[in-house]
Amino acid sequence: MTSRNRRSTHRGDRPDRGIPEATVARLPVYLRALTALSERGIASASSEDLASSAGVNSAKLRKDLSYLGSYGTRGVGYDVEYLRYQIAREIGLTQDWPVVIVGIGNLGHALANYSGFASRGFRVASLVDIDPARVGECVGQLTIASYDDLATIVRDNGVAIGVIATPAGAAQTVCDDLVAAGVTSILNFAPAVLAVPAGVDVRKVDLSIELQILAYHEQRKSQAGQNHPLTEPLTPPLTDLAVTDAATVAVEVESA
Amino acid sequence: MTSRNRRSTHRGDRPDRGIPEATVARLPVYLRALTALSERGIASASSEDLASSAGVNSAKLRKDLSYLGSYGTRGVGYDVEYLRYQIAREIGLTQDWPVVIVGIGNLGHALANYSGFASRGFRVASLVDIDPARVGECVGQLTIASYDDLATIVRDNGVAIGVIATPAGAAQTVCDDLVAAGVTSILNFAPAVLAVPAGVDVRKVDLSIELQILAYHEQRKSQAGQNHPLTEPLTPPLTDLAVTDAATVAVEVESA
DNA sequence: CTCAATTTGTTCTCACATTCACAAACTTCT
DNA sequence: AGAAGTTTGTGAATGTGAGAACAAATTGAG
Fold first, then answer.
1. Interface with B, mutate which of A34, A40, A164, A205 (most B CBs under 10 A)
2. Residues 64..83 of A with a Cβ closer than 8 Å to B: which?
3. pLDDT in tens, B59-101
4. What is the 3-state secondary structure (H, E, C) of chain B?
5. A253·B207 Cβ contact <8 A
6. Which chain A residues are Cβ-neighbours of B54 within 8 angstroms?
7. pLDDT at B245 over 70
């Protein structure tokens, strides 16, 4: 079926089937664009259509998709449903991913109620908090479990992905406990750098960092205008501003 | 004081004082590491110390810092307080940044209560929601204002940065209204691609995307082990796993 | 069947980012 | 003062990603 043995395709250069990180980070965006098109009853789309839906340029999109295989048809475009399934399969969304959320403060609550999980194969298997007073409390469909049961929960539910939404001080301990229990991927919302053994993935989501990056560019914009921030700058810094537009770094939430 | 006029430093090659995006994204991490060191009473630190605190390698850290200027001392290291101030100034954290949060659902609540804002010069000037029933409701120190007052709030407070925490459907409209009111930087939590005029920065934080990226790597890990995910893989995929570790993409929250 | 129009998949080139490796600059010890 | 030891700042090499451009493949019209 696939011409995977041939060296003719550039996948021959990637015998490990590895997809570039930058591409992996965009696949979920394409997936969402495809879902949107599908819901509008559109059965087929060109790379140009898809790209504008996803907010990227079409050459990049085509190259990204080419890492997965040749799922388009020249002269026609891509079958929306088919491509959607292929991307979902590549990312691993055709299987169920039970996750556990540790730390049910304000953010933990928001995450627990977030509707975007279930729709993409992620199932919140359990909520855990260290505060005994909170244990038993209901959040959405779930009740908060004791931190002591963390290891049991992870093992019984086959949890591979853990979400840390604790204060910074607790993050490393929670991380260690999650890893000891068998979790191999961690999404960290605590403002702390986590040390993990090789083979464990950590991704960090840090609100304050995103704001600081915006502040940096904002400051440069007003410096360019010098005297009056609200006035048109004397020398329009076109190149400067153009650079900053595409700066986009992932993450979705829905105020469910 | 500074030898900024000389061409001797490589900043002579960057007359626009532009700092690479990748570096800008790491400065907040360094800043946090410096704050942590400072709180532990450490007055001086080498690039090695700092790098391990920040979770990066020391060569990268030195190169990043070199874009700001020569704030270290050879044979000694960096003065923690001094460097901290310099980075804060470069990012623009020495000034006050009033922000407005639009959409006070679960996530909006969490953001409104997030303590990491104030500590870094960000001040939540106002909370806005379109639901009239919510207007007047207290969240933390603030009360929710009407969406109709958005433009007035932005102008009166000199808000340059807006945070969108609405459902996806409302995001583009809110974005347009923010931009029309004068906001030039937007942090978007809604799972939608925003179109903005040139000169406006958008950064996106998308939880579900982060989870999907983790799922992709997780799937690859278990594929490497083939038969028994819980067993040691027959051929240890060392290179594979090593790559994934440093994958980290910013954002901080504290379950205040 | 042939030709024109369309659109993908891929190659090539350039820009950006990371890492190495070392000279320059500073401290400390003798 | 001089030598030995540290540690920064940076040039050079390598790796990764983005975008332009085009050949190959497909459709549809005549």
1. A205
2. none
3. 999 999 999 999 999 999 999 999 999 999 999 999 999 999 9
4. CCCCCCCCCHHHHCCCCCCCHHHHHHHHHHHHHHHHHHHCCCCEECHHHHHHHHCCCHHHHHHHHHCCCCCEECCCEEEHHHHHHHHHHHHCCCCCEEEEEECCCHHHHHHHHCCCCHHHCEEEEEEEECCCCCCCCEECCEEEEEHHHHHHHHHHHCCCEEEECCCHHHHHHHHHHHHHHCCCEEEECCCCCCCCCCCCEEEECEHHHHHHHHHHHHHHHHHHHCCCCCCCCCCCCHHHHHHHHCCCCCECCCCC
5. yes
6. 193
7. no
Q: Which parts of chain A are beta strand (E)?
A: 44-45, 72-73, 77-79, 97-102, 122-129, 138-139, 142-146, 161-164, 185-188, 201-204
Residue recorded with tokens 């810092």: B65
* A51-99 tens-digit pLDDT: 999 999 999 999 999 999 999 999 999 999 999 999 999 999 999 999 9
Q: Are A186 and A162 in contact (CB under 8 A)?
A: yes
pTM for the predicted model, two decimal places: 0.86
With CA atoms as reference, report the closest residue to A248 among B132, B172, B191, B55: B191
Q: What would the mean pLDDT of A2-17 be, rounded to a whole number?
A: 42
Instruction: Answer yes or no: do B185 and A215 touch at CB < 8 A.
Output: yes
pLDDT at residue A1 in the model: 36
Q: A18: Cβ under 7 Å from strand D?
A: no
CA angle B114, A127, B104 (to 5 degrees): 35
Give the amino acid at A9: T
Give the CA dihedral B171, B174, B179, B185, nearest 10 degrees.
-50
Helices vs. strands in chain A: H and E counts, helices first: 9, 10
**Residue A219 per-residue DSSP state:** H
- How confident is the model at residue B66, as a pLDDT? 98
Which residues in range 57-96 of chain B are in contact with strand D, contact meaning CB within 7 A of any of its atoms? 58-59, 62-63, 65-66, 70-78
**Do the beta carbons of residue B130 and residue B167 sit within 8 Å?**
no
Distance in angstroms: CA B75, C1' C22 = 15
What are the angstrom distances between the C-alpha of B219 and each of A26, A35, A91, A164, B231?
17, 22, 8, 20, 15
Rounded to whole angstroms, the Cα distance separating A223 from B169 reads 35
- Provide, in whole angstroms, the distance separating residue B74's CA from nucleotide C24's C1': 9
- The residue type found at A123 is R
> Under a CB-based contact definition with an 8 Å cutoff, are residues B97 and B160 in contact?
yes
8 A C-beta contact, residue A181 and residue A204: no
Closest by CA to A174, choosing from A97, A101, A98, A111, is A101
| Pairing assessment for the beta strands B122-129 and B97-102 based on DSSP bridges | parallel
B115, two tokens: 């303590």
